[in-house]
Amino acid sequence: NAGVTQTPKFQVLKTGQSMTLQCAQDMNHEYMSWYRQDPGMGLRLIHYSVGAGITDQGEVPNGYNVSRSTTEDFPLRLLSAAPSQTSVYFCASSRIAGGGLYAEAFFGQGTRLTVV
Amino acid sequence: AQSVTQPDIHITVSEGASLELRCNYSYGATPYLFWYVQSPGQGLQLLLKYFSGDTLVQGIKGFEAEFKRSQSSFNLRKPSVHWSDAAEYFCAVGGDKLIFGTGTRLQVFP
After folding, report:
1. What whole-number distance in Å separates Cα of residue A59 and Cα of residue B2?
2. CB distance B97–A33 less than 8 Å?
């Protein structure tokens, strides 16, 4: 049982380049999300999805794009990288528990992205 | 709107002392509540969770948390801190999305 698999682990981009961070889970979780972690700011929600074909914006969605074509996969695309997107990115998945609320999140190992 | 507040950015305690990390949330109903820990350079590990029932929940590594509906709080406690507890701690709220607080960095002195 692999859980949440996130790749790559490290990435350096030049300003203006695009890239996709991959995220896959094998727990059949409905909910998947992307967070960025910056010092002193905790984990901020970028985008999330409650199922295949359904995505929504979180707290800091600008500059990022997502899609959810399958239950398992939830890639995050940086369309034109900027130095402000230098951060550590985490993908997470969780099941929807009673009352439509989200149960505990399972995290990928993180991607350390530097934009120069 | 759903939100989480961790008022303490940085806490320093001596090894063996007791610990309480504060967490307040805002949500229209009773949400699910979580505490995670992150060691430097590592991912996030779930310490404990509250869904319903007993308002005092036990977690791993000797941690516990108490849900107080009247105060919209879910504070994390440990009776005796070990040096290995030095890390960053995040409170999270599971409502219509999963939102994290800004974290509390715990430093432990010998």
Report:
1. 11
2. yes
